[in-house]
Amino acid sequence: MVNYFQGLNLMFSNSLFSSYMDWFHGFNCSLLFGVLVFVFCCFFLLISSLFYFKFKKVEYQFGELMCSVFPTFILLVQMFPSLSILYYYGLMSSESGLSVKVTGHQWYWSYEFSDIPGLEFDSYMKSLDQLDLGDPRLLEVDNRCVLPVNTNIRFCITSSDVIHSWSLSSMSIKLDAMSGILGTLCYNFPMLGVFYGQCSEICGANHSFMPIVVEVTLMDNFKNWCFLLMD
To answer: Mind listing the domains of the chain with CATH numbers?
Structure first.
């Protein structure tokens, strides 16, 4: 089936996993479009034929069989790509080289590196008078979450008050942060760069003012950043 919907809504291109998710999203949209066209054609043919009237005695065993086989075939078509994505995600979560605890507050994020004692900080959105040249408005923060490249990282996400959602769309990351519940997410950032996200759960009046900024850098730069932050 031709994937007409790939890249239409989900502009994922920053990792192999996010590219898989983008393709799978487009594949499901194309499959759903094909199903809708098929159902519409069957409905039109049914109305325009004599079989529409109830006084016609027609056996519908074949139709009932197709109504059972056709959905099963659709599920089988969806099963194989979804299992491959789950398998790829399992490779990333097999072992973690770094653990980061992310806590949502009203309305900012706090980060704690569990493997590095004393390394924790809060991340607030920069106001307009704090922005530097080139900083995106309503997306830049005062303290970025700096992470090493090509390292399996385990995120432990929770909340201190209401429900938040730690979302990084360009990496296909989204996990709700709920008070009293510790959600885990494993990920491997394959490329250098600065990636922006936002809380995608309506958590109050300043919901749209708690952005997420993840800066992926080399391991040596990450170690230097840790030393500077802890001094």
So the answer is: 16-48+62-92 (no CATH), 98-230 (2.60.40.420)
